[in-house]
Amino acid sequence: LRCWSNIPFITVPLSRAHGKSFAHRSELKHAKRIVVKLGSAVVTRGDECGLALGRLASIVEQVSVLQNQGREMMIVTSGAVAFGKQRLRHEILLSQSVRQALHSGQSQLKDMAIPVLEARACAAAGQSGLMALYEAMFTQYSICAAQILVTNLDFHDEQKRRNLNGTLHELLRMNIVPIINTNDAVVPPPEPNSDLQGVNVISVKDNDSLAARLAVEMKTDLLIVLSDVEGLFDNPPGSDDAKLIDIFYPGDQQSVTFGTKSRVGMGGMEAKVKAALWALQGGTSVVIANGTHPKISGHVITDIVEGKKVGTFFSEVKPAGPTVEQQAEMARAGGRTLAALQPEQRAEIIYRLADLLTDQREEILLANKKDLEEAENKGRLALPLLKRLSLSTSKLNSLAIGLRQIAASSQDSVGRVIRRTRIAKDLDLEQVTVPIGVLLVIFESRPDCLPQVSALAIASGNGLLLKGGKEAAHSNQILHHLTQEALSIHGVRDAVQLVNTREEVEDLCRLDKLIDLIIPRGSSQLVRNIQKAAKGIPVMGHSEGICHVYVDTDASVEKVTRIIRDSKCEYPAACNALETLLIHRDLLRTPLFDQIIDMLRVEQVKIHAGPKFASYLTFSPSEVKSLRTEYGDLECCLEVVDSVQEAVEHIHKYGSSHTDVIITENEKTAEFFLQHVDSACVFWNASTRFSDGYRFGLGAEVGISTSRIHARGPVGIEGLLTTKWLLRGDNHVVSDFSEHGSMKYLHESLPLPQRNAN
User: Fold this and answer.
1) Does the domain formed by 548-701 have CATH 3.40.309.10?
2) Which residues are in the Aspartate/glutamate/uridylate kinase domain (predicted)?
3) What residues pair up with 244 in beta bridges, in sequence order?
4) CB of 2 within 8 A of CB of 10?
5) Contact between residue 65 and residue 103 where contact means Cβ atoms under 8 Å apart
6) Cα 648 from chain centroid?
7) If you compute the radius of gyration of the chain from its CA atoms, what whole number of angstroms results?
């Protein structure tokens, strides 16, 4: 027996055995039977007279999509009163205008007062029209709908309950969408209220309770409650401290302050929470979300079913650790403390982490072995990704060396003065470097990325959220533990957080109030997905690594094959590996060209002929499908150009602005190439593989950026800093600098303080 005040019909014993609700949002995609409850604020227009037809059509479309996927959909709807109010007002106005015209004989009518409309009369006038509208909309998707009107009394009678249950099951069996509503035409009148300016509306609380009751009665998997707020907040929405609660657990009511009721109806969020908790106890998962926001209402229902982070999800399973929002807040607080440390203290943390990588190598390699075995057993990773996943003693030693380079170079990174200006007498301005804030780094298959990125975040004083691939879970766990152990020596353990919850990458990309910069490390598809999903958060990275090597007529025979072999074959899965080889036309059918082809064959590199190269051959290799292809394997495109200018034009047209190389002994040609190619990295007589933070002497990199602003190329400590302005004055005001003021602007450049010699 479950009951509480104001919802009397729920005191009837349940006929359904206690079930298990979904523990995580990601499981909602398995929901088979779903109830969608539409609040009055969702269904009615802003003027509270008539229906919001656009929203209603969108909701019907989403319900139809889910129904046609084989799910069993039910709708608990409000709106009959609003629809009836619109019709009755129209009838009253028409009737009054006719009477007044007959009585006065005048063509111009005076202002007419509309009498107070009783809610039950409005419902009686509106129910048939509302149902006809639903039927017309569902017919567009070849779906039949059926109306069921209920009252609280129907749930007190056991026979009526059985009849209702049987009717609903039969409708669902026939693939019909039941449209359920309280029979507002016969319910007892609610307490008077002024929400609709004199028009009494059936309490929203009744439909919330009805939806919860039906969801449990019908053993529903999911109840979606749509209202005019984003979900449940810890304080009334709109207040300064209000934060949307992502997941609400039974027993959390004390942490919530409920505000006023919604725009339409008598109910409020408190009634929705009570109904949601009751449904949850009955085994039905619940999500409360906004069904009125124009940017999300068109896909809010389908997004919820797909497991996206929309609204507030009610769950009985409380996670052992903090939520990702809490982790982001911890990272921000920890990052600010980290930035306030002395440079020597931040360097000491990084040196300690470098030592731990070598001291604890056996434990690290053991965890990595587990990841490799699981990946091989499941067969879900390609060979290049398995190589990225693998750690070794030499890799750990290289990591430690790189971390020590970061520590040594980070002494004056944060708080460095980069500009000083004397604005006026005793008014000095400084521009100083500061951390960006909270970084979110998402990486695949590369556990060695974790200590690299952590060290760069520590050196730059940034808070850090890490989201690694599940294929490297064991490796990431121990590496993060060692990172926090190093941070603990100065009490900033929380500055680096590893996200272990079932957060989808797309959901993380929506945390624009908690995260300042996203850095993806992985496949071009991952980067593209993140760039598409990020809402209001800048993304630093590159979606593709289409790197070119151009072989000029004046190229050295000895250098050509070495540079091409290293660029393509040393690590073909890397983003800085050669993908397109450009050959000057005059080199065709020369010994140098033959040497290049022979070397590629020996290295088992599959060649795809560009259209111009194919035109020179009677029998050519397979012609390339696209000149904008990143192979990531022992494959490359070979194309012919007539000059260095054409090579530059080709790179600009088909490249990704990552890394491009010229091989030539002609300094003038090389300088033309270096100055005109608009890529993040442009090399002369050097392998594309040098495009790397460690090889550039940055110690490590958080990624390679091809964007045009902030940071470009391999991004080290400098790319994780921004600036702020510090102005020191003495009772200065702008009015003193006016035409008749007593002060003049000087704008004198001042010398910068000496940088740390170490």
Assistant:
1) yes
2) 32-290
3) 233
4) yes
5) no
6) 36
7) 34
Kindly report the CA angle at 459 between 458 and 462, in degrees rounded to 5?
50
| pLDDT attached to residue 160 | 87
Q: How far apart are CA 427 and CA 433, in angstroms?
A: 20
Q: What is the pLDDT of residue 18?
A: 44
Instruction: Read off the pTM.
Output: 0.77
Kindly indicate whether the domain formed by 324-416+433-533 is annotated with CATH number 3.40.605.10. yes
Which residues, including other chains, have CB under 8 Å from residue 8's CB and lie 6 or more apart?
152
Counting as low any pLDDT under 50, the low residues of the chain are 1-18, 107, 109-110, 190-205, 262-267, 758
Structure tokens belonging to residue 508: 């993380």
Buried b (16+ CB within 10 A) or exposed e, 546-581: bbbbbbbbebeeeebbebbbbbbbeebbbbbbbbbb
Helix axis angle for 343-359 and 393-409, nearest 10°, is: 170
Alpha helices, DSSP H only, in 655-710? Answer: 667-676
Q: Outline which parts of the chain fall under CATH 3.40.1160.10.
A: 25-92+117-187+200-314
3-state SS string over 321-387?
CCCHHHHHHHHHHHHHHHHHCCHHHHHHHHHHHHHHHHHCHHHHHHHHHHHHHHHHHHCCCCHHHHH
The 3 state secondary structure assigned to 179-243 is: EEEECCCCCCCCCCCCCCCCCCCCCHHHHHHHHHHHHHHCCCCEEEEEECCCCCECCCCCCCCCC
Which distant-in-sequence residues (6+ apart) come within 8 Å of 416 by Cβ? 432, 433, 755
Give the sign of the dihedral formed by CA 695, CA 697, CA 698, CA 704: negative
- List Cβ neighbours of 668 (8 Å cut-off, separation of 6 or more): none
End-to-end CA distance of the chain: 74
At residue 26, φ and ψ (nearest 5 deg) are -60, -20
3-state SS assignment for residue 116: coil
**Which residue ranges does the chain devote to CATH 3.40.309.10?**
548-701
| Contact by Cβ (8 Å): 683, 567 | no
Which residue pairs, CB below 8 angstroms and at least 24 apart, start in 629-633?
629/546, 629/579, 630/524, 630/544, 630/545, 630/546, 630/575, 630/579, 630/656, 631/572, 631/579, 632/384, 632/523, 632/572, 632/573, 632/577, 633/384, 633/572, 633/573
Residue 433: CB partners within 8 Å, gap ≥ 6?
Answer: 413, 414, 415, 416, 418, 721, 722, 723
At residue 46, what are phi and psi to the nearest 5 degrees? -65, -30
Name the maximum alpha-carbon separation found in the chain.
109
Ramachandran region, residue 283 (left: φ > 0; alpha: ψ -120 to 50; beta: rest): left
Q: Which residues of 385-418 are buried (b: 16+ CB within 10 A; e: fewer)?
A: beebbbbeeebbeebbebbbbbbebbbbbbebbe
- Which helix (H) or strand (E) segment holds residue 663: the answer is strand 659-663
Q: Does domain 25-92+117-187+200-314 have CATH number 3.40.1160.10?
A: yes
**Angstrom distance (rounded) from CA 550 to CA 645:** 11
Cβ-based burial of 268 (10 A; exposed 0-12, middle 13-18, buried ≥19): buried
- Contact between 15 and 161 under an 8 Å Cβ cutoff? The reply is yes
Q: 680 and 692 in contact (C-beta within 8 Å)? A: no
* Distance in angstroms (rounded) separating the CA atoms of residues 318 and 313: 12
Cα–Cα distance, 466 to 453 (Å, whole number): 9
Which residues sit opposite 441 in a β-bridge?
466, 519
Indicate the SS3 state at residue 512. Answer: coil
